[in-house]
Recover the amino acids of this structure.
């Protein structure tokens, strides 16, 4: 039986990495599930659900030539591949401000304490080297309501962070 | 009750044809379509192509949503959008594409002319959520799914209102 794996790949970015990895997997009986690729600080990163008829070691061996050729690090975990069970987020939170250490820790701790479950998070460091700006977008579920979250992050405005909470009303048609 | 067909059923990508005869058969179809909408998973609208029909018929009802401007139960036959104002991004899902939601840009305010099941022509002004629902359903009549209009989630500021 085919097992699901989470394949994490990190390396120096260059054109064609996704094509090379996925073709190697496809040519050897692999099937892909959900994936998320991002270029973080110039590094290529991807997390990829792979269904493969073999164990972790076999998958590692299959990808080893690409690791050597493209200078990529592969990390493989056996996972349960539960598809078709997406949770629909009900709040989107946008945060931005002058970059400093601790923004993510402080904001997400306040949100977690107010009942927020993060489903999706993306952040970028924008601006310039001299004046970096932190920009973060989070989506998730407010298990105790959006008002609790609004109160939880109210104090950050005084620290110069702009935080906007928007309820997501998903139209089902 | 009809079964709701799901993508990749090719009937969802067909342009539906106008209704010419407003008879009991049409009214029976509208009743069944409405029952399908109300009897299935929660939704604020349904279009005939979602049950495999090629008629330009949509039903919208956003009245169950709190704090939402609503005309109540709407039967929109051969609907035409005669005016669009403003752009707004919002999240949509679709009975014909389970387990996926995405951001779609829609006009914030629309004017629509449509017939009801008795053949009477009405004009409407729809705003905000109701306008989005009507646009989503009219898209079905033109063989379009919200997938055809997705805008990026990443880096999207998700402003409620984006004026040109």
């Amino acid at each position: 039986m085919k097992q699901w794996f989470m394949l994490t790949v990190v390396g120096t970015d260059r054109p064609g990495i996704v094509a090379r990895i996925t073709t190697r997997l496809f040519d050897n009986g692999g099937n892909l599930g959900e994936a998320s690729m991002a270029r973080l600080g110039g590094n290529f990163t991807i997390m990829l659900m792979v269904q493969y008829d073999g164990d972790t070691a076999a998958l590692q061996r299959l990808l080893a030539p690409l690791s050597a050729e493209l200078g990529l690090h592969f990390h493989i975990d056996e996972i349960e591949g539960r598809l078709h069970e997406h949770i629909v987020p009900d709040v989107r939170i946008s945060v931005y401000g002058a970059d400093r250490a601790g923004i993510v820790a402080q904001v997400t701790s306040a949100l977690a304490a107010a009942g927020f479950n993060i489903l999706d998070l993306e952040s970028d460091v924008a601006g310039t080297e001299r004046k970096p700006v932190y920009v973060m977008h989070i989506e998730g579920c407010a298990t105790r309501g959006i008002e609790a979250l609004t109160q939880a992050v109210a104090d950050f405005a005084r620290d110069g962070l702009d935080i906007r909470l928007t309820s997501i009303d998903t139209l089902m048609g | 009750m009809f079964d709701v067909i799901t993508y990749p059923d090719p009937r969802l990508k067909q342009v539906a044809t106008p209704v010419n005869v407003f008879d009991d058969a049409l009214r029976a179809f509208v009743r069944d379509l409405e029952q399908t909408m109300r009897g299935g998973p929660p939704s604020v609208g349904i279009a005939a192509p979602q049950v495999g029909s090629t008629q330009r018929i949509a039903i919208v009802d956003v009245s169950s949503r709190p704090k939402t401007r609503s005309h109540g139960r709407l039967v929109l036959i051969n609907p035409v959008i005669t005016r669009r104002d403003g752009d707004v991004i919002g999240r949509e899902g679709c009975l014909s594409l389970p387990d996926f939601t995405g951001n779609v840009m829609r006009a914030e305010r629309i004017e629509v002319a449509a017939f009801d099941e008795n053949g009477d022509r009405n004009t409407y002004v729809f705003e905000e959520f109701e306008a989005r629902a009507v646009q989503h359903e009219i898209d079905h009549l033109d063989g379009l799914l919200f997938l055809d209009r997705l805008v990026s989630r990443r880096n999207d500021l998700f402003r409620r209102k984006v004026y040109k």
